[in-house]
Amino acid sequence: MEILKFQGWSFSEIFHVNEADANLALLPRDIKAEDAVMLSDMVTTGFHGAELANIKLGDTVCVIGIGPVGLMSVAGANHLGAGRIFAVGSRKHCCDIAMEYGATDIINYKNGDIVEQILKATDGKGVDKVVIAGGDVHTFAQAVKMIKPGSDIGNVNYLGEGDNIDIPRSEWGVGMGHKHIHGGLTPGGRVRMEKLASLISTGKLDTSKLITHRFEGLEKVEDALMLMKNKPADLIKPVVRIHYDDEDTLH
Amino acid sequence: MEILKFQGWSFSEIFHVNEADANLALLPRDIKAEDAVMLSDMVTTGFHGAELANIKLGDTVCVIGIGPVGLMSVAGANHLGAGRIFAVGSRKHCCDIAMEYGATDIINYKNGDIVEQILKATDGKGVDKVVIAGGDVHTFAQAVKMIKPGSDIGNVNYLGEGDNIDIPRSEWGVGMGHKHIHGGLTPGGRVRMEKLASLISTGKLDTSKLITHRFEGLEKVEDALMLMKNKPADLIKPVVRIHYDDEDTLH
Amino acid sequence: MEILKFQGWSFSEIFHVNEADANLALLPRDIKAEDAVMLSDMVTTGFHGAELANIKLGDTVCVIGIGPVGLMSVAGANHLGAGRIFAVGSRKHCCDIAMEYGATDIINYKNGDIVEQILKATDGKGVDKVVIAGGDVHTFAQAVKMIKPGSDIGNVNYLGEGDNIDIPRSEWGVGMGHKHIHGGLTPGGRVRMEKLASLISTGKLDTSKLITHRFEGLEKVEDALMLMKNKPADLIKPVVRIHYDDEDTLH
Amino acid sequence: MEILKFQGWSFSEIFHVNEADANLALLPRDIKAEDAVMLSDMVTTGFHGAELANIKLGDTVCVIGIGPVGLMSVAGANHLGAGRIFAVGSRKHCCDIAMEYGATDIINYKNGDIVEQILKATDGKGVDKVVIAGGDVHTFAQAVKMIKPGSDIGNVNYLGEGDNIDIPRSEWGVGMGHKHIHGGLTPGGRVRMEKLASLISTGKLDTSKLITHRFEGLEKVEDALMLMKNKPADLIKPVVRIHYDDEDTLH
């Protein structure tokens, strides 16, 4: 029997979901549960960053932040037709994976100001679109400074601190530069999940690259959470697999 | 003989225009030259603010600033299908004209914080869209605070001073509120002018309401500019009419 | 007490609506019930025709068919910023009301081929957009012939008969004319109804012009339906008002 | 010295191009001239089919016709985020290349009705989007029959014969199915070419797969044209390389 893939995952074995037809999608048999669990959070959020940045065929894109969401923004930018993709990060493993997901250039912020690095790499032209998937309230100023007029900045990063996001007046074209600023939460739902799942089924997206640590059993949730808190250099995302008596329901 | 309406107006009797087919539009005989002169600056800019704010049928809109551009943003919002339109201003003449162009409510910033006034008038819900056609770098914070999630802010105001535009982190939904921020220069060109001109020809837009002072002769340009500098309470826009020997060319 | 306005109206006094939050909207106290009943069918459908036709500021538009839905397409085109609006019809009362809703020209198909009339009236250029709110499967060929390249045709007419809609190959630009063809059912729901209702509340849309015949009591539904079947020349739309014991619930 | 890549190619050694800034793009040094020549016709046209079909992340797409333009529609659909891609064709070489460009399923019209094959392969659901890059005026009826409601059909095929394109009334949702029909000529220009070229430079698009026959010298144009007329089974696209005295201008 097939089981259902849930839009939201929780730390329990049984839970209630409203509006099943709108919010539950069948997990295709050819997708592993641990790969699928990336769809309802990392993939849809990261891809939404690329959608918010309004990426078009051949755009030069900068993705700032390449944790698991940012890596999916790189993949999303690539799936939406981006040409050159700058990925801003520093951890080697994440940079390597970013290149596998479609990045063409790595910008390491430890090597100097990222705006200067981007402008130098683009002969002073800057990029067409920016996806913000990391950083803080000050990251937007960098995005505005590295992007061309007539462009879009898409943010999916949760901004936890700071009073204001500062948009530099002059580089924002004194209000007239058509540098559009977007920030949003990803859409969810059954249809969205089915569509994203098809990218895995067809072999066009491999979410297993995001999984660096695997745990077995509900009781390991705490270990996994501690791992996410401590952030070892080789971590992208841990997965906890919960066992069921009727194991074949998980195919 | 018909003459041409120029996309950009200049303070001279003869000037050169590149790409005539793209940049010059025939002035329809039924439009007065002084009304038409509003098209290539006030109308297209103000309307573009409404376009940038992505106004849809029945939206509740706030237009901040009701000088000549802002008044055209009110008219533009109305032409794009807005329902309730709050116009933020204080000068009586501008407020009266705003109501004639489609505003349904006047918000006078001299009566208190405009965000509080808007929230009170909308039962705490806020507005669907904001057009910024006046104010300064601090106006964006007000816009973000008065607008619902899933919304658009369109700016056409030239921001002449200040280092940064401050976007309040919390009210911007911690980066996830889908409050899109746009700022741009109006598109121009022949087709745009022809389309906007048709709104005058069909009687759907009356730009003569913008003209509060009329001058005759090129030598009066200085008087008109001084008027714009001194900004008397009853001023919206002055027009200087230049005389030609072959007067019927100006029909 | 306020009562609810229902998205769909039915011929009964009590009925069940799923998903109340999504499908029921409060009827504002300043809107009469008989005016509001137009919102959930005529207004939203007619306006959707204008939305499907992708009407932009200053567009020249042709609305084919000016029964109650088509009249709302005329109004919708006007609310979306159309300049010149050709309304195609023949009944005097409908033509008069079309002019009140924003039409600038009436095209009577009894006076000859409507394509020729439109081309003549536009100096051979044709129109920017067409809304189809009447006619049959052959109406699309007329729309394609009267529209410019780079344009949109929006249909909201139910096509009850005929095997095929014929799109003329040559006039459709041999497949390359960017004459986009859309046909759809209107969106509904609470938010849509609230937004359209605001157009009535603000005095920007007067649906009472659509109501030509009024009946009192549920038992008059049959009379009203017969009227719609017989279509007298002065009919646009009949309304049947149902009485409630607690009359003030209908304010 | 770098030379210029021309938007339109002609059968002569010298020719005039208007508006150089808008119409000429620099050929990046890392792109071979024969690969680049595909950009200004096959790539931009095929990709535009995918753009017209409004392809979104995870869409199931059918591309009808997989000659050189159709193959680029397959690639374009893939670059825009399609999941499952059905490619309709019969010649083995083209089918093989289609799979390399992102197709996941081949539909051979010699094996029966393509609509039935598509519906069977999708459990009766049909596809989200259709790109028409081959066939004739009757192909649109197939597209309408195989596509879901709420969808887009994008045509880039030149329709050389037939009076009408027949859209089946019933399967088109009696005018209300939101099955949008688009047909257009590709946009061109410098920016477009630069963006598409970046897909080659970054290794994300390999146009050399389209080139099955190579000729040397302007005098071979006739041979190449005869090849295109005779269409051998292994032909996708021939290229004629013209020699210049100053050979290094072609890097």
Question: Which descriptors would you attach to this protein?
Answer:
disordered N terminus, zinc (chains A, B, C, D), two-stranded antiparallel sheet, 2 domains, Quinone Oxidoreductase, Chain A, domain 1, homotetramer, 251 residues, alpha/beta, globular, 9 helices, Rossmann fold, 6-stranded parallel sheet, metal ion binding (chains A, B, C, D), ADH-like_C (chains A, B, C, D), metal-binding (chains A, B, C, D)
Please give the structural blueprint.
Four copies of one chain form a homotetramer.
Chain A lengths: L3 E3 L13 H4 E3 L6 H4 L2 H14 L8 E4 L3 H12 L5 E4 L3 H9 L4 E3 L6 H8 L5 E6 L6 H8 E9 L8 E5 L10 E5 L6 H12 L9 E6 L4 H10 L6 E5 L10
Parallel strand pairs in A: 3-4, 3-6, 4-5, 6-7, 7-9, 10-11
Antiparallel strand pairs in A: 1-2
Helix pairs in contact in A: 3-4, 3-8, 6-7
Radius of gyration of chain A (CA) equals 19 Å
CATH topology of the largest domain in chain A: the name is: Rossmann fold
Biggest sheet, spatial arrangement of strands of chain A: 5-4-3-6-7-9
Query: How many strand units of chain A?
Result: 11
Helix-strand topology string of chain A: EHEHHEHEHEHEHEEEHEHE
Number of domains of chain A: 2
Descriptive notes:
The structure is a homotetramer of 251-residue chains. The first copy, chain A, has helices at residues 20-23, 33-36, 39-52, 68-79, 92-100, 114-121, 139-146, 190-201, 221-230; strands at residues 4-6, 24-26, 61-64, 85-88, 105-107, 127-132, 147-155, 164-168, 179-183, 211-216, 237-241. Helices cover 32% and strands 21% of the residues of chain A. Mean pLDDT of chain A is 92; it is low at 1-8. In chain A, helix 7 links the parallel strand 6 (127-132) and strand 7 (147-155). The termini of chain A are close together. Chain A has a six-stranded parallel sheet, with helices on both faces. The relative contact order of chain A is 0.17. Chain A is of the alpha/beta class. Chain A is built from nine helices and eleven strands. Chains in contact: A-B, A-D, B-C, C-D. Chain A binds chain B through residues 132, 137, 140-141, 155-169, 172-185, and chain B through 132, 137, 140-141, 155-169, 172-185. Strand 8 of chain C pairs antiparallel with strand 8 (164-168) of chain D.
